[in-house]
Input
Amino acid sequence: MPNSEPVEVDHENTVRHADAEPGQPGEYASWDAFWSQIEADQKPRTEVIRGVTVTVPRDLPLRVTRKIERLQHSDKEEDIASLLADVFGGDVLDTWIEAGMGATELQTVLAWAIAQASGTDISFRQAYDRVLERGKAQPANRKK
Output
């Protein structure tokens, strides 16, 4: 989760932690410099999903949030591929399809990734259970 310590901006547009003295660590020349430092301080985690090493999302860009809302009922492969590329980077969908990933598994990965990006560290099992609870999928061994 990003650092939520108070920051202040002075009349020279210098961003600093509220407790930082001018010229001391914690003072930044711009918002971009400040945010770059926040991101650099966070050590990324990775997971291997169907043979693909992905970085665990820590945040969702707002464009992804909008895309999720817009595409939540889409079943077009290019929409899903675009969303996954935004969340995980790169073209993971084709690799996962070739590795045998099914619809329930993909929904589970997305539920897990969105929870992680929202600051909720859930397990893959918890994400799978959430998918089943929402009624979006049947367990792999059941037919309607």
Remarks:
- Strands lie at 7-9, 15-17, 27-28, 46-49, 52-55.
- The CA atoms of residues 18 and 36 lie 18 Å apart.
- The radius of gyration is 19 Å.
